[in-house]
Design goal:
By secondary structure, the protein is of the alpha+beta class. Helices cover 22% and strands 22% of the residues. The protein has 20 helices and 31 strands. This is Heterokaryon incompatibility domain-containing protein.
């Protein structure tokens, strides 16, 4: 079943593990709508600035979101003084951070801070003298001033764009800048900065009560909260506030703002957000989410305190979910992908003892990290003309190099240390290859992986064992199946995600002839190629980053090159024919309800067909990841017991000397078939 949907789950079918990373929906409640509610279908109906003031006051007085003591990691170099309308050096005080879609660049007549206009912009009313201020930013300056906050931080006016040294520092500290803001103003209404902050006018109510004022602004609303001609309206009134926020969440996900790469970390690290989109305004902090007809919730949802912040320990589960949400986002310049992910990337570099290497957790987590798979064919990010050939860091072995749906469950082996992993498949990976990484082919190499298992933990780390499970005093709410290495509590310097182009290893290599027929992945829209042993039996498979229709007539007839990545195992249990048919029906129902995950028509027809003898499917939480289990060639005799295999990578040589290669696909080969194959140990560089 696709990553985001499960019809048996709450939140309009969104699976629970993704709920914390999507806007609004985990921080609302089922309280009934106030009678004054109506959809934002009138562009002339103003938005009351007092509503936003009420949210800020409620959060300042009742929540811990902004007041929680924490040293700000990085601070702005410059901010906009909204009263004097000029750029000033930031020293101290509250500032609002703007998150928006940049749009046209500095060379199109739109104002940006550069060395040449810095002194002019520092003068009182310098913004007016220079001119060319985009509409979104101009509206934000006015709103921040109306709310009584002194400063606004916006990247194009607060980073000297042609000072590469300062720009680099500010980009690396972007997460800290948004995290330290009084609140973040999200401008998702317009497709770029030339549009307005809001499609509706912003006005301040003259009445004392912001809620009473709101009633006066809504034409046709009486004390009982019904519109005068409600019977003629082509919309259904939501039942409660959760329905409103769920709907707004879907609207926000579809905006240009949410689909841009840079806004990912801006949203993730902001503690409080005032969000303009789809003709309305919403509030979201670490505790609650509210629409413009709400000032507070009756109680704070209990799960938000856990899910609303990043973990301080190596949570591979959290890494996988956030990476899957970042991967589909667009970037104007593909080479910016590391900077756009740097906020989350630097956090994971600090929490994973092996750091983060071109988007993959290192150390004892690296072998599992290499196994990422596309959920549907992903588009390769190509560097722009601004980058000289060879300077880009877009290696084939990193998911950051591709835009699209990466299947986070393909990383499930990475969180096998969680006690709950036994209920999620119990997939384990064992290192067999030592990996190193480097910036260039000939530059110094650094360890990427560790041949030690995750359970090789010093006794001083205070792990406590009880009934075969482990806990740690610094992570009291999580139960582990084994101890894991934890980051040092006080690092002398902040960790930075590393950017490397090359992987180096000495691994077993062989060639293998592909089965001439391509198959559809049971979940997603990628092609699956089968690998047969010398007896013609299924030995393994490869999942390609292309569709079955695109590869079916282009399957290589010559043997392909495979290298060993690691060894793995998972326990299997059989599935009854009744359960198999139920799962098919559930998948079909999901396909018919949601068109954003288009499954191929031949597969749908195959699923609909009622066969006289049902193939016994593998009942397993990882059935959508282990493509080989759904292949017609998979023998039902293997449907139970311990499934042991080797993880392999199909590589394509880039040089005549066959020393440098690129990733083509990743898959698995049954243990006996791989160990019985004649292989050669050789050094390989993967670009």
């Amino acid at each position: 079943m696709p990553e985001f949907l499960n019809k048996n789950m709450p939140y309009h079918g969104v699976t629970p593990h993704l709920v914390p990373f999507l806007p609004y929906i985990e921080k609302t409640d089922d309280s009934p709508l106030d009678g004054a509610w109506r959809p934002a279908d009138s562009l002339s109906r103003p938005i009351d600035v007092a509503v936003i003031e009420g949210w800020l006051g409620e959060c300042d007085g009742s929540h811990w979101c902004h007041s929680q003591s924490r040293k700000q990691r990085s601070k702005p170099a410059w901010v906009v003084d909204v009263k004097r309308r000029c750029v000033v050096p930031y020293k101290k005080g509250e500032y609002v951070a703007l998150s928006y879609v940049w749009g046209p660049g500095c060379d199109t007549g739109s104002i940006c801070l550069v060395k040449g206009n810095l002194e002019q912009l520092r003068q009182v009313r310098g913004l007016d003298k220079v001119g060319g201020l985009p509409r979104t930013i101009a509206d934000a300056v006015r709103l921040v001033g109306e709310l009584g906050v002194g400063y606004l931080w916006v990247d194009r006016l607060c980073i000297v764009q042609d000072d590469l040294e300062e720009k680099g520092r500010q980009l690396m500290g972007m997460a800290g800048i948004y995290e330290g803001a009084y609140f973040t103003l999200v401008a998702a209404q317009s497709a770029d900065a030339s549009g307005p902050l809001s499609s509706r006018p912003l006005q301040r109510s003259r009445k004392g009560s912001w809620w009473g004022a709101l009633l006066t602004l809504v034409p046709g609303v009486g004390l009982i909260g019904k519109r005068k001609e409600e019977g003629d309206m082509p919309w259904r009134r939501p039942v409660n506030n959760r329905e409103v926020m769920n709907s707004h969440s879907i609207d926000l996900l579809r905006t240009v703002w949410f689909q841009r790469g840079w806004t990912f970390q801006e949203y993730l690290f902001s503690r409080r957000r005032v969000v303009f989109h789809n003709n309305t305004v919403n509030w979201e902090c670490l505790c609650v989410s509210l629409h413009e007809h709400q000032q507070r919730l009756s109680s704070i949802p209990t799960n938000t305190l856990l899910f609303s912040r990043l973990d301080h320990w190596p949570s591979f589960h959290r890494f996988a979910r956030l990476s899957a949400l970042f991967a589909p986002r667009f970037l104007t310049f593909a080479e910016d992908v590391h900077d756009a992910f740097s906020g989350a990337g630097n956090h994971f570099a600090a929490t994973f003892p092996g750091g983060l290497i071109s988007g993959l957790p290192g150390g004892c987590f690296f072998d599992a990290a290499l196994l990422w798979q596309p959920y549907s064919p992903m588009e390769k990010r190509h560097p722009s003309n601004k980058v000289q050939m060879g300077e880009e860091v877009l290696p084939s072995w990193s998911w950051l190099t591709y835009r699209g749906n990466v299947q986070s469950e393909s990383w499930a082996a990475g969180w096998s240390y969680l006690a709950t992993s036994q209920h999620e498949g119990g997939w384990q990976v064992f290192p067999t290859v030592h990996w190193e990484h480097s910036e260039t082919k000939d530059s110094p190499r650094h360890p990427a992986s560790s041949l030690e298992t995750r359970t090789h933990i010093p006794d001083s780390e205070d792990w406590k064992e009880s009934d075969g499970h482990y806990t740690h005093p610094s992570i009291p709410d999580t139960v582990f199946s084994c101890p894991i290495p934890l980051p040092r509590p006080h690092q002398p310097q902040p960790a930075v995600a590393q950017r490397s182009r090359y992987l180096h290893c000495t691994s077993k290599h062989t060639t293998w002839t592909l089965h001439p027929k391509a198959y559809h992945a049971f979940a997603g829209n990628c092609a699956i190629l089968a690998l047969l042993d010398q007896s013609g039996n299924l030995a393994g498979h490869l999942r390609l980053n292309t569709s079955e229709s695109d590869i079916r007539h282009h399957i290589p007839t010559n043997p392909v090159d495979l290298i060993e990545l690691s060894r793995g195992q998972v326990e299997l249990q059989p599935q009854s024919p009744g359960s198999a048919q139920t799962e098919k029906e559930e998948r079909l129902d999901m396909l018919q309800r949601d068109l954003s995950f288009p499954f191929p028509v031949p597969l749908m027809e195959e699923l609909k067909a009622r066969k006289t003898k049902e193939k016994e499917l593998v009942l397993h939480p990882l059935a959508d990841v282990f493509d080989e289990w759904s292949l017609p060639l998979w023998p039902e005799a293997r449907n139970k017991g311990l499934y042991e295999f080797y993880n392999v990578m199909w590589i394509n040589w880039l040089d005549e000397g066959e020393t440098v290669a690129e990733r083509v696909a990743v898959g698995r080969i049954e243990k006996g078939a791989w160990e019985g194959r004649e292989t050669v140990v050789r050094a390989v560089i993967i670009a």
